[in-house]
Every structure is written in C-alpha cells, then in structure tokens.
Amino acid sequence: MAGTHEFYFDDDGMIQNVFLLWKPKSCGSCQHLFCDKCIQKWKRINSTSCPFCCTPYKEKRVPPYIHSLLGRLSIRCRNSSFGCTEILSYNSLEQHETNECQYPTKQCHICGNYILTDAIDQHQSSCNPALIECRICKHLVDSESFS
C-alpha cells in the first residue's frame, strides 16, 4: 500500500477505502492533520509552508487520541472488489494489503486504479490515462501529458 487510503461506509456500515488519514502528521502552527504522503508531496512542491495557514510547516507529534480513533476503525481490504473478504483494524491493514492478501494488486501508473498484480501488464497495454482538470484553464487533460 502506498499511502493514502480511500474509504466510505458501505450498506453494512463497514468502512470502504476513500481518503483515510494514513500515517498522520500535524502542523505545529495550526494543528491541521495530513497524511504523511500528502504533506511530503506538498513540501516538495511548495517548499516549507503549511497548506492551511501558510506559515512555515513544522511537524508536531499527532495527539494520541487521533491514533486511538484510527486504531478503532474496522476497514475492508482495498482488494475487496477483487474478492478479498478481510475486515481489518487500521493498524493491521497495511501489513495485510502488502504481504498477506490473497488478491494482491498494484496501482496502475497510467490511470491510478488498482489492478490485480497478475493482470497489470495486460491492463496497462490498453489503459487510458486518467483525466485531470487544469487549474488554470479548467480543461480536462490526460495525466500523462500534464506535468
């Protein structure tokens, strides 16, 4: 698993992945929480400022209650659409998805979707790039040509 998870509640009240705070980090100035992967990406692009308060981002220890809340979540494996039926705690999710899941997936570097590892080459040979909106002109552009 490579960072941010996506989650939503399904019909059974179980969490399905849709942007879950993953490996949280906190800004020492404004206390906003960020996924580790997200804040690292932000810092590479935007130097050292916090995305919310624009002051220099100084990492602060995340309050223990945040880890406690996350630890109480029951989350379906991101590979449930491929057949995995495991429901795991936040703390065991990464280990399961990385090393134990019987339905291993990889994220397609073209479209960003997760694909069964055995089918990734076939998928990528016919995959269409994800469309993203240009912040300036608002046109949809395929992600491969947008850099």
TrEMBL record:
Cytoplasm among the record's keywords?
no
GO function term, MF aspect, one: zinc ion binding
One short Pfam name that applies is zf-C3HC4
For this protein, the record's PROSITE patterns field holds: ZF_RING_1, ZF_RING_2
Domain called RING-type: residue spans: 30-53
UniProtKB keywords:
Metal-binding, Zinc, Zinc-finger
For this entry, the protein name equals RING-type domain-containing protein
Organism, scientific name: Adineta steineri
